[in-house]
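Lab notebook page, bench 4
Experiment: in silico fold of construct C2
Operator: M.H.
Input chain length: 185 residues
Purpose: comparison with the prior construct
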Amino acid sequence: QRMPKTENDVISTYPHRILFGAAMAMGWPIVSMVSNQFRNSSRSIHRFLAVGVFLMLGALYFSNSRGPWAAGVLGFVVLLMIGKKEIKKKLIIFGMLTFMLLLTRPGVYDTLFRLTSATFEEGSHKAGSYHYRWELWQVAYSETMRTPLTFFLGYGPGASRALEWGRIRTYDGRYYPFESWDNQY
C-alpha cells in the first residue's frame, strides 16, 4: 500500500519519504568511510563519493523526517567516536560548516526546530506518533523475549494480521489493533 504523496515530499524511488530519509541516514556514513579509502589511490573516485555524501545529506534534510534526522546525527556521533583521525577532522569541519549554515540561513534552522519541537508538544499529532512508537517498542520487546527462536527470527512480515495480539492503548487513549508496527528498526 503506497502512502499518499504530498507536494513537498522528496521520495525518489521509495514509497515514503521516511524510508528515503532512513536510507540517506544509513548511506552517508558508509559512503564517507568508503570515500576515505580512495583518498590516496583514486582521487576521482574519492571526489565522486564525497559529492555523493553531500547529496545524501541534502536529501536527508529535504526528506523532512524527524526519525531519519536523528539517525543521521547518530551516524555523525558514531563516526566521530570510531572514525580514524582523517574522518574525525572532516566531521569537525563539517560540523562547523553546518553550524555556520544554521546561523546564516535561518530558514534551515526554523525547519529543523519546528519539526523537532513538534515531537514534544503535548497533544500534537507528531508527539502522539512519537509516543506510539515507544509503546510499540515495549510490545515488540515482550513478544521477542518469549523464546530464543522469536528473539533471533521474530514472527515475520504480516504476522500482526495473522496472530491475535489484541489491541494496544495509544497515546490518545483509544485502542487499536496491531496492524502496523510503524517502525523500520
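Observations: The chain has a mean pLDDT of 81. DSSP finds eight helices and two strands in the chain.
Next step: discuss at group meeting.
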